[in-house]
Amino acid sequence: AQTVTQSQPEMSVQEAETVTLSCTYDTSENNYYLFWYKQPPSRQMILVIRQEAYKQQNATENRFSVNFQKAAKSFSLKISDSQLGDTAMYFCAFMKTYVGNTPLVFGKGTRLSVIA
Amino acid sequence: DGGITQSPKYLFRKEGQNVTLSCEQNLNHDAMYWYRQDPGQGLRLIYYSQIVNDFQKGDIAEGYSVSREKKESFPLTVTSAQKNPTAFYLCASSDTGTGRGTGELFFGEGSRLTVL
Fold it and tell me: Which residue, B83, B113, B102, is CA-closest to B22?
């Protein structure tokens, strides 16, 4: 079974600074997908960024980027120019394949606080 | 607007009572999921359904039941057999059954169940 580990239960960052959230996973699969989801205080889960394992290039979405290290099974999220609206729980998630609707496996989350 | 609607947002139940949480989607997605969220535990999969009239147990299915009679609807019943039902419940859907889509989960706003 796949597992996802987020080793930082809580983090904080000053506004406009950069922060990196860690995620490691365990799998024997070669093809899979990785995600970062954001859950703000409103509790609505929102997709932040997605990475396909067969792509070597790291995904980026505006201020959000990932460092995907397939051999190390590591998938960290970097948030640049942090904003107060980035305050949220962040969940790393793994999906074995997207043919057949395999459910996502989530980590326990990292609570990020952006400080003014 | 397309999306997922969960109801009720807040629900109180007495011990020994069954309760049903509603989840409706108008995204025409094939797959639907129920996750349970507890502090420090991340999201844990209860049940999922890849197609109408079919569903599979997740990691923590004991004490829960579901049905999938319509593509749009995936209600979750929390039975009296669930030992610790107080939690936040999230419903999600995805469109990955035929290889299209990105694997992304679309979430509802959640239902908070409290057992008195």
Answer: B113
